[in-house]
Amino acid sequence: MAGITLKNVSKIYDNGFEAVKSISLDIVDGEFMVLVGPSGCGKSTTLRMIAGLEEISSGELYIGEELVNKVEPQDRNIAMVFQNYALYPHMTIYENMAFGLKLRKLHKNEIDKRIREAAATLHIDSQLDKRPKALSGGQRQRVALGRAIVRNPRVFLMDEPLSNLDAKLRVQMRAELIRLHNDLKTTFVYVTHDQTEAMTMGSRICVMKDGIIKQVATPEEIYNKPDNLFVAGFIGSPQMNFFKGRLIEEGEEYSLLGNNDEYGEFRFPVEIEDKENVRPYLRKEIIFGVRPEHIKFTEEDGLKAQVLVTELLGSEVHVHLHVQGEIHTVKTDASVHIKAGDIIKVIPACDKIHLFDPETEKALI
Amino acid sequence: MNRAKTSTLFKIVIVLYLFIIIFPFFWVAVTSLRPEAEIWGSGALQLKGAAFTTENYKLLFKTPVLNSLKNSLIISTITTIYVTFVASLCAYAIARLDFKFKKLLTVIVLVTSMFPQMIVIGPIYRVFVQLGWTNSYYISLPYSNITLPVAIFILITHFSQIPKEMEESATMDGSSKINTFFKIILPLAAPGIFTAAIIIFIGAWNEFLLSLTLNTNEAWRTATVNISFLRGQFEIFWGQVTAATVVVTIPTLIIVILFQKQIVSGITSGALKE
């Protein structure tokens, strides 16, 4: 077991493309760190640099106390699970799992013991004599996990391991991975583009975009206190609604003032914690964001808008509204009867509004 | 054009093609079983009521044909083994490793395969004479001239099709490059390697010019060259020539029949999520 430290790590490809731009990240020993971001954000490249499959262009990478920039991947004692499983098709499941152990010259009995244990944990004990071809997608992914587990590596790296599974299996495997992490207590670094996976599995989440880390924090913090516009929009489903408006101060109270075209002006009260911080933004145009579940329907003063579509998801309804030329979503419970075309009024919870600088896109509170 | 029509046309083309390919062989096979006097004329291809004889074969085996077959077999086998080995390593390097002038190297390989043999045979002959390698099994070495480029190209295609993750996964498992090559890559490329090996073998087996030039002594002649010597001062022994052709074709036929499964088999299925 070991932590991982990245110090100003960059990856520049031969064609000049900078996939990872001087990132620094501390992954604590035993942590489940999820790297999340849209395609091309550099998350997989970062993982592959930790694995040693990509050379590090500049910066330092430590696993435990050891500087591993120049250490070959096979000598780093880390295991990796690939998106497409990458099982050896010409070997049985048993041989697949034994491959890495044999290379480490472990005794036959020890190899057998470890494989049987891992197979039991992953419920693939009856598949050991089969070849990967005979297994279902979920079973193959378990084998790939098993192949990593038996090695007792210092770190587990996982590159979108669930994205080839169907939705139901993915939910099931998510839970199993969490359980596995709890059992093994080893450092996991997990790459995904799926924010649900990030939220449910990570002890901490590292949100990346264009080769830069946008925020590293626990799932709660990422969700409740996003550092910037990108993180706020990326994490959460349906995504956070953003509006343009101005912040005004009336005595001790603050309000947000905005304009929604033909439906006229709107105005909401907003709670501000750090009053000093927002002072320079008073009466200027800012962006504010509200999560769909923090918007309520109201009969009184609020933001007037037309309903475009409603989506019933069983227990809840997503109501899509047309505001300031964009589509915004309100999450409400299924008992509310609203249909497309209705003109309604909504108001956000005053303590759940996120304010952002329109230029730097940084959060203000 | 609708599908049924296309498929019918396709079938006709294939039948015609097969006829063109198979007919000469059929002709040769029939001729080899006919008495010398009946090889020519309008009845040459008549099967019904024709006289058949094994005389041509009996005569053929009085010539050094068996020795020439042995030579061909040894030379072709040596060529197949070492060219397959060299081509595998070379193709893997081109397909997977990063090094300078990789593209140039690939082009050079391609270009060498396009040299007419006539151009290279002179220098090769000189070298062989000086080394004293004429009339020996060293002829396998210049055989790479005809077989290696093709083998490399077949194998590059096969190696490139093997998912990179397979190697990366082995690397993460602690496998060295060379171990990964032998334990993971080669088994996965087996169909390609069989295909390459068979093509190398057939190429070497059918080779004529190098053998004719370098192994001039009768004891070192290969089967193909031996056939060309089945002639008298004023005539060619067509009966024996055709019988020898049949005999020489049989080993290649056996090889293709034996290994066609390996060539076709899709050994990589199940490795990855498709």
Describe the structure.
The complex is a heterodimer of chains A (365) and B (274). Chain A has 365 residues and is α+β, with helices and mostly antiparallel strands. Chain A has 2 domains: 4-234, Rossmann fold (3-Layer(aba) Sandwich); 241-356, OB fold (Dihydrolipoamide Acetyltransferase, E2P) (Beta Barrel). Helix content of chain A is 24%, strand content 35%. Chain A contains 9 helices and 20 strands. Chain A has helices at 43-51, 93-103, 108-121, 137-149, 167-184, 195-201, 219-224, 229-234, 275-278; strands spanning 4-12, 18-27, 32-36, 58-63, 66-67, 78-81, 155-159, 187-192, 204-209, 212-217, 241-250, 253-259, 265-270, 285-290, 295-297, 303-312, 316-323, 326-333, 343-348, 354-356. The longest helix of chain A is centred in the middle third of the chain and has 18 residues, at 167-184. The model of chain A has no long low-confidence stretch (mean pLDDT 92). By secondary structure, chain B is mainly alpha-helical. Chain B folds into 2 domains: 1-53, no CATH class; 65-264, MetI-like (MetI-like fold), CATH 1.10.3720.10. Helix content of chain B is 70%, strand content 0%. Chain B has 12 helices and no strands. Mean pLDDT of chain B is 86; it is low at 266-274. The A-B interface holds A 51-53, 73-75, 78-80, 82-90, 99-100, 103-104, 131-135, 137, 140, 147, 151, 164 and B 163, 165-166, 168-176, 179, 183-184, 187-188, 267-273.
CATH homology group of the largest domain in chain A: P-loop containing nucleotide triphosphate hydrolases
Largest sheet of chain A: 6 strands, mixed
Please identify the top-level CATH class of the largest domain in chain B.
Answer: Mainly Alpha
Helix content of chain A: 10-25%
- Give me the number of helical elements of chain B: 12
Number of helices of chain A: 9
Strand content of chain A: 25-35%
The total count of strands of chain B amounts to 0
Q: How widely separated are the two ends of chain A?
A: 37 Å
- Main structural class of chain B: mainly alpha
User: What is the domain tally of chain B?
Assistant: 2
What is the second-level CATH architecture of the largest domain in chain B? Answer: Orthogonal Bundle
Biggest chain contact = A-B, 32 and 24 residues
Radius of gyration of chain B, rounded? Answer: 23 Å
Number of beta strands of chain A = 20
Question: N- to C-terminal separation of chain B?
Answer: 33 Å
Rg of chain A, Å, rounded: 25 Å
